[in-house]
Write a structure and sequence with these properties.
Blueprint (H helix, E strand, L loop, with lengths): L2 H11 L1 E4 L2 E4 L11 H13 L6 E9 L9 E10 L3 E10 L2 E11 L23 H11 L15 E5 L14 E8 L7 H11 L21 E12 L9 E11 L2 E10 L4 E13 L6
Antiparallel strand pairs: 1-2, 2-4, 3-6, 3-9, 4-5, 5-6, 7-8, 8-10, 9-12, 10-11, 11-12
Helix pairs in contact: 2-4
Length: 290
């Protein structure tokens, strides 16, 4: 396994401190605070360690405070209910004695039922699209490194291929929708809970960026602030995070310095595997006072 992915796997593994208490470390991926997807994935991993063979089918989380890269995070799991088919867990992520995230997750014993789903968008396959790493390299060659956000320079445990060509240097107003193929950079094991935690981590990539598109904004603009406020996710069908998945994202609304974004995640064969919704802070300052 490539070191960058092995590091992510270790990050999500967590250290058990007590029956319902876990400790996770943090990684600086170039953002001002701990990446929200990391806390989501770790909180889901903590809850999953308390439910036996049941599998996660939904999570709802609120980001309360920014996380500190330099300190561990404690995950306290509350076993709220254990039924014959469903179990519910509440997880509080704690850092420096204060909660930074509240997460509620529900787990289900697998069973058969009625089936329907929306169709996957008709988009080019990932094999026909350039790796976004090439776009990042072009930025490094074009823009002085000190003017680039650090997260654009970091190696990532995922490979991304965007259906729409990124416009970071000269963004123009466009539809508030985008599609991105992604997968881990190497193979994972066969632990289903691990794949779900990895997908929760990855689901926070690229989501709020769809809300920037109608306003002709990019991450290179210095005068606005982005932050995840809440995150909901519903796991629908089996998948592997190390095989190509299409993230179909749109932003139906932005108002009050908040942007609402949603996404559907499909396997390459068109099977819908997860649905995501997130509201994020999108605050623009006057250009003269960033």
């Amino acid at each position: 396994m490539k070191p960058i992915l092995e590091d992510l796997v270790q990050l999500l593994a967590l250290e058990r401190l007590d029956t319902n208490l876990f400790r996770g470390q943090s990684r600086d991926i170039g953002t001002q605070r701990v990446f929200g997807g990391q806390v989501l994935g770790q909180a889901l991993a903590a809850a999953s360690r308390t439910v036996g063979e049941l599998v996660a089918h939904s999570l709802h989380a609120y980001f309360l405070r920014k996380g500190d890269h330099g300190a561990p995070i404690i995950y306290e799991v509350d076993r709220q209910r254990d039924g014959r088919s469903f179990s519910s867990r509440r997880v509080v992520a704690i850092q420096h004695g204060r909660p930074i995230l509240n997460l509620a997750a529900s787990f289900q014993k697998p069973e058969e039922g009625l089936e329907h789903q929306v169709e996957m968008p008709d988009v080019p396959p990932p094999e026909d699209l350039p790796d976004l790493e090439a776009c990042r390299q072009q930025l490094r060659d074009t823009v002085p490194e000190e003017k680039l956000p650090r997260f654009l320079l970091q190696e990532r445990p995922f490979e991304f291929r965007s259906v729409q060509q990124p416009q970071l240097l000269d963004p123009q107003p466009r539809d508030a929708a985008t599609q991105i193929w992604f997968r881990t950079v190497d193979r994972l094991g066969d632990d289903d809970a691990q794949h779900r935690a990895v997908l929760a981590y990855a689901s926070d990539y690229n989501l709020i960026a769809a809300a920037l598109r109608p306003h002709g904004l990019s991450f290179l603009k210095p005068n606005f602030q982005l932050a995840s406020l809440d995150h909901a996710m519903w796991f629908q069908r089996p998948f592997r995070a190390d095989e190509w998945l299409l993230y179909d994202i749109d932003s139906p609304s932005a108002t009050g310095a908040r942007a609402l974004c949603r996404g559907s995640i499909f396997r390459q064969d068109g099977t819908l595997v997860a649905v995501v919704a997130q509201e994020g802070l999108m605050r623009v300052w006057p250009a003269k006072d960033p």
